[in-house]
Amino acid sequence: MLLALTWLACAGSPVEGCDAEPLGVTLGxxxxxxxxxxxxxxxxxxxxxxxxxxxxxxxxxxxxxPDVEVLPMAERLSDGLALAGDQVSSLVxxxxxxxxxxxxxxxxxxxxxxxxxxxxxxxxxxxxxxxxGAEVELSVDxxxxxxxxxxxxxxxxxxxxxxxxxx
Length: 167
Fold this sequence. Notes:
The chain has two helices and eleven strands, in the order αβββββββββαββ. Mean pLDDT is about 90; it is low at about 1-15. It has helices at about 1-10, 125-130; strands at about 25-30, 35, 40-45, 55-60, 65-75, 80-85, 90-95, 95-100, 105-110, 135-145, 150-160. Strands 1, 2, 3, 4, 5, 6, 7, 8, 9, 10 and 11 form an eleven-stranded mixed beta sheet that branches.
């Protein structure tokens, strides 16, 4: 417990000079490396190893120390239905952190698609299949554990995972 509290206390310690820059965030995807996304790009709704569905989210972050707090979110545009975001934020170390430029990448964050309740008569897999081809606002909030936060949002098109049968 003490080790965890010590890590949290030190995790937000800014690198000298990094807190002088604005916190910049560029939304992307990627499990092991950052891949930038553009408006209307397709993102895959992945059927995860524990039986749930998610979208892999990544971000390029500037103006930050080596550790950040990240929260991905997703909302269907047609009706404003929240699909992801009601989850605990992730505390992560930036990948390929460059202390001189106060920049690094967040990779492998999952936006869990479990916020919406399709109702008792709709199997969840059918609900996910209904999202195939939907326009979704995908976003990521990043915080440096202090008062600075940054957000990046894009409208993307969701696609079901390869090999997943949809009616």
